[in-house]
Amino acid sequence: MVLSGSLVAIVTPMRPDGAIDLEAWTRLLDFHLASGTNGIVVGGTSGESVTLRDLELRELTLRACERARGKAAVLAGAGMSSTWGTAERVRWLSELPVDALLLVTPAYNRPTQEGLYQHFAAAAAASAKPIVLYNVPGRTAVDLQPATVARLARVARIAGIKEAVPELSRIRALVEVIPKGFTLLSGDDATAREAIACGARGVISVTANVAPRAMSEMVAAALAGDTARARELDARLAGLHRELFVEANPIPAKWVLAQMGLMGPALRLPLTPLAEAHQASVREAARAAGALP
Question: In the chain, which residues have pLDDT < 70?
Answer without folding.
Answer: 1
